Amino acid sequence: MAKAIRMSKTGGPEVMEYVDVEVGEPGAGEVRIRHAAVGLNFIDCYFRAGLYPQPLPAGLGQEAAGTIEAVGAGVSGFKVGDRVAYAGRPNGAYAEERVMPADILVKLPDAISFDTAAAMMLQGMTVQYLLRQTYAVQPGDTILFHAAAGGIGLIACQWARALGVNLIGTVSSDEKAALALQHGAAHVINYKTENFVERVKELTGGRGVQVVYDSIGKDTFLGSLDCLRPRGMMVSFGNASGPVAPFGVSELASRGSLFLTRPSLGNYTSTRAELDATAGDLFDMVLGNKISIEINQRYALKDVAQAHADLEGRKTTGSTILIP
């Protein structure tokens, strides 16, 4: 038996239960992993609340790092004792041990700790596909990145700086503004005290930005469109404030023939080659000291309800991990 988080209904943080589960042995194409650290991400809250549906009862969590303890039939490239990390579905990372598909695993370089890996896989690979694939930013580009002091945001600030990109970040406090600037943001807007659309126009001489990366959703979506220059790209990749309301596609035409995309990590890492390339790029940035992963909160796995409450209450910065 092993400890894990399970939920039998959707709702607030209180629906998560810390229980004993039978782990079992891996089947074909599977491995059993003992987790050393588990990542906490906003997408976990979406599943917990029911915004993203899944069959119940269910586990939660899409990111962790640990050691392989058993390997099922047909698995190649991995063996017992390998240090590995992963990000992606199926849910179930909130656990001491789990059996899972081997095809979403990557081997973890010895120089990257389990804690760091658990804090960066989902967030770091998300930044990789956002900046290098969804819209391949170029030196000198000016971009807008919401929630710049969060886990994804702080990685994006550093990655953009390394690429010679001017990142304008939005935050909710002066303390978070200072944090984003320390990590490479060119400019920071406190949306509690400033109109971010007006400020972006000021910072760009009225032209707007080439691309907006928006994980906030409902509260910022139309304003984000207004920050784009003609033929700019709106990248909506989260719903922290709630899902975006339906809107007419003419909104894109009236603002200058804008592009809109709603990407997800799974669609950018659906093959082994894509996964290894995306993770490899992230590992290179970390090992090359171009990106530092800020783990600013640690919680015991049994205290995950408090971790969710703090995350949703905007009380966290950088990355957060759970310790089984």
Plain-language structure description:
The protein is α/β, with parallel strands linked by helices. The chain has 2 domains: 2-121 and 268-323, Medium-chain alcohol dehydrogenases, catalytic domain (Quinone Oxidoreductase, Chain A, domain 1, Alpha-Beta Complex), CATH 3.90.180.10; 139-262, 3-Layer(aba) Sandwich (Rossmann fold), CATH 3.40.50.720. It is built from 10 helices and 15 strands. Helix 2 (114-134) crosses helix 3 (151-162) and helix 2 crosses helix 9. The mean pLDDT is 95. This is NADPH:quinone oxidoreductase protein. It holds the Pfam family ADH_N. GO terms for molecular function: mRNA 3'-UTR AU-rich region binding; NADPH binding; quinone reductase (NADPH) activity; zinc ion binding.
How are the elements arranged and paired?
Elements: E1 2-6, E2 17-21, E3 30-40, H1 42-49, E4 63-71, E5 83-87, E6 97-101, E7 105-107, H2 114-134, E8 142-145, H3 151-162, E9 166-171, H4 174-182, E10 187-190, H5 196-203, E11 209-214, H6 221-226, E12 228-236, H7 250-254, E13 259-261, H8 265-268, H9 272-287, E14 295-300, H10 304-312, E15 319-323
Parallel strand pairs: 8-9, 8-11, 9-10, 11-12, 12-13, 14-15
Antiparallel strand pairs: 1-2, 3-4, 3-6, 3-15, 4-5, 5-7
Helix pairs in contact: 2-3, 2-9
